[in-house]
Write a structure and sequence with these properties.
globular, 5-stranded antiparallel beta sheet, alpha/beta, 8-stranded parallel beta sheet, 15 strands
Length: 367
């Protein structure tokens, strides 16, 4: 069975999607897009521009967005007006209609590429989508599974409410595991480490429910490596406290930050969390480096081989970030760069990377 460990379905970005107002939702969309590395251009002549047209470059949060009439246009692009000129960037691939990606479109892509099952992730800028993703899973139970995502900054202030939302999402909506994104907690003023303190009641409830947790880590500050490794230490403490829970590092390692001489070279310290046998790693490469290198991404084959050697194929899982990966390559190509070209993996190891690992993790089974 081939399983995409990281795909999305979402309603139109300019809809409520669980927020109190569309305007509030759009502030998060603008913040996320404004802080992303995709290039900005002036619509009149496609002249290059930058993110300073949409957001304060020193403040990549909803508080740092500029009042630039952020909106969609007739071509379903997200555009804004700065100093009398309209600008855009292609964060969503241009083939999307209505700023949405419904499950029927995902399954059509899966059928064409030969993918059997996809695990649905989400993000704050996409909306509070637990009920929506639950409906996707309910309608296509043999093709889709979904992750619960809560607003991380609300958990310390209202752990009982967060536990109730998590319980509802697992038991009523039929979602499978938890997605936890610490950068959003920090973005809203969180300072304490997220493995304990005010988060402890919530994590104890997760532990009692015995569900896997998918962590999306990021650097809290600068310098990057020191800050990022600090997040690794928090994750290691969390895994020591809950050794029976499967954990996944989503999106893979910070591939872009360690490109040197046209390849990815990691310091030894980057591998330390994987001393914990419960931790697995997503291999999401085309979405992360597709603006730098082209299919079949020969430059990343060595780092895939290193991950397999360091961690083991039984703790690696392929994912795509569909539909966003379509900015750079087709869905089939996002699979084939592994399936057809990484022949240093045995057939057994390839089967683990392309489905076996995520199937084991979702069943919360140890190695």
């Amino acid at each position: 069975m081939i399983i995409d460990a990281h795909a999305y379905c979402f309603p139109p970005l300019d809809s409520l999607a669980g927020f109190a107002t569309v305007a509030e939702h759009m502030r998060y969309v603008q913040s996320s897009i404004g802080g992303h590395h995709q290039p900005v251009w002036r619509m009149r002549d496609r002249a290059p521009a930058d993110n300073s047209t949409i957001i304060d470059l020193a403040n990549h949060t909803p508080a740092g967005i500029k009042e630039v009439n952020f909106r969609r246009d007739a071509a379903d692009r997200l555009i804004w007006t700065y100093q009398g000129e309209d600008y855009t960037k292609q964060y969503l691939p241009p083939m999307l209609c209505n700023l949405e990606f419904p499950p029927e479109k995902l399954i059509a892509e899966m059928d064409f590429a030969g993918v059997d099952l996809s695990l649905l992730h989400t993000d704050t800028f996409l909306g509070e989508l637990n009920a929506y993703l639950g409906d996707c899973v309910r309608r296509f139970p043999d093709r889709l599974k979904g992750l619960v995502h809560l607003f991380e900054w609300d958990i310390p202030n209202n752990p009982d409410g967060a536990i109730a939302d998590l319980t509802r999402s697992i038991r009523e909506y039929g979602l499978t595991a938890l997605q936890f994104i610490p950068p959003y907690y920090y973005m809203h003023g969180g300072n304490e480490a997220w493995d304990d303190g005010p988060f402890r009641p919530f994590w104890e409830a997760v532990s009692a429910m015995n569900i896997p947790v998918f962590f999306t880590l990021g650097a809290k500050g600068k310098p990057f490596l020191e800050s990022y490794l600090g997040e690794h230490r928090i994750l290691l403490r969390w895994m020591e406290r809950y050794p029976h829970l499967q954990a996944v590092m989503t999106h893979g390692l910070p591939w872009r930050q360690f490109i040197e001489d046209n390849r990815i070279r990691f310091p030894e310290s980057i591998w330390e969390p994987f001393a914990a046998p419960q931790l697995s790693l997503e291999i999401l490469l085309p979405i992360r480096i597709g603006d730098l290198w082209d299919y079949p991404y020969a430059e990343v084959w060595p780092v895939v081989e290193e991950c397999a050697a360091r961690i083991g194929a039984n703790r690696l899982m392929w994912g795509t970030d569909l539909p966003m990966v379509s900015r750079f390559c087709t869905y089939r190509q996002s699979l084939d760069f592994l399936r057809r070209y990484c022949n240093f993996l045995s057939a057994e190891d390839m089967a683990l990377v392309l489905g076996g690992t995520v199937e084991r993790v979702l069943n919360n089974k140890a190695l």
